[in-house]
Protein 1
Amino acid sequence: MILPIVAYGDPVLKKKAKDITKDYKNFDTLLENMFETMYNAYGVGLAAPQIGLPIRMFLVDTTPFSEDEDLSKEEQEALNGFKRVFINAKIVKEEGDEWAFNEGCLSIPDVREDVFRKPIITIEYLDENFKPHKESFDGLIARVIQHEYDHIEGVLFTDKLSSLKKRLIKGRLTNISKGKINVDYRMRFPDQKKRR
């Protein structure tokens, strides 16, 4: 089932999410619905807070990035088919010199800005079978994971912008929270409490 994506301005997007256990109610259905929702909105990542659940879970599938012709063949191959579920994740290390990349977010449609992040991360997490992992990632995969990880920490990419950039996009963000935007996927807007 395709779920509505929570729009900018909803308090759930600013909450630090809580850990879950393997007996989380209807977990398999939730996972299936989240993947369906992400693909329907042409996303490469989706965090549970974006569907209104303040739990520490997010999905990533970077396959769409693998078609970017500006990337090296090696980068394209790494991105193609990289699909993971991250539960109760904790980034334990971020390394390297920060680099800028133009980011967007399904909860903040039609707003894209350059965000600086470190290129290498080490993360501990549970997969969809609640099996523990500790892995390091770099490049665009690390970037997508960091963006989704921020969601479970109650942080949006717009929080990382300079005050000048924040002022420049303030009107657009207000319009999103009021539902004054056209999107081709289901959304739930905080000011209108309506679903599309």
Note: The mean pLDDT is 95.
Protein 2
Amino acid sequence: MRKPEWLKVRLPNTPDFNRVRGVLSRHRLHTICQEARCPNMSECFQDGTATFLILGSICTRNCRYCHVAHGVPAPIDEEEAERLVFAVKSLSLKYVVITSVTRDDLPDGGAGAFARCIGALRESLPDISIEVLIPDFQGQVAAIEEVIAAAPAVINHNVEVAPSHYAQLRPQGNYETSLKILRRVGSAPSTISKSGFMIGFGENSEDIRRLLEDLAAAGCQAVTIGQYLQPTIDHWPVRKYYHPDEFAAIRKTALAMGFRHVEAGPLVRSSYHAALSGSGGV
């Protein structure tokens, strides 16, 4: 399908954009912005923000919509949290988003690494706000509790796609496990529960409504909804490009269900305008 005009984005060559890339390179850090080919990378980098990708850049899962490389990951980098702090200081960030590849090879799924990064940032920058976007840790309760105990401002766990597409698009994931995680996060005091998904895989309007209802019932306070963009010819094809007006209608529906913050648009991704979700703004 031909990509519509509203989805065409060019990478800039501005001082702010290049400064962020330079800091990331200097501290040997990954971002999901670069690994997943996020369409908002130019906007976020120009604003001096980035979503840090910890635990390497190799995922143990192979979802049919994702551009992140999959295979056998490298061992844990014990100095990663320290380098993350240096990068955040260099960029003078006040709101930090941390995510990771899925690490099914680790006993705790990487939960300990999230906790270490949160702790290191808090120790050096006590006033900083932290959002984490976590994998499912294979549903391990202890792993989820470790992240909750670290007390980030926002815990995001994406359901990614409508449940009817899980078998084809993310067979190693489990929709009910994801809802269970979100219910637990939603019950945690002083923590905002967040999730997100993409559309354009072949779902219908009822699929979208049911997914939003499930997230609302799980206690989600913030949600992001974006257009799926096929990374390569080997990935799942786009079945529909939703018009911005359709996203506006979906956002209106979600707000009516009680979500505190909703980002919905063709270029929206999990961390788009993340600081607003952390403040509960709409």
Note: Residues 5-279 form a domain with the TIM Barrel fold (CATH 3.20.20.70).
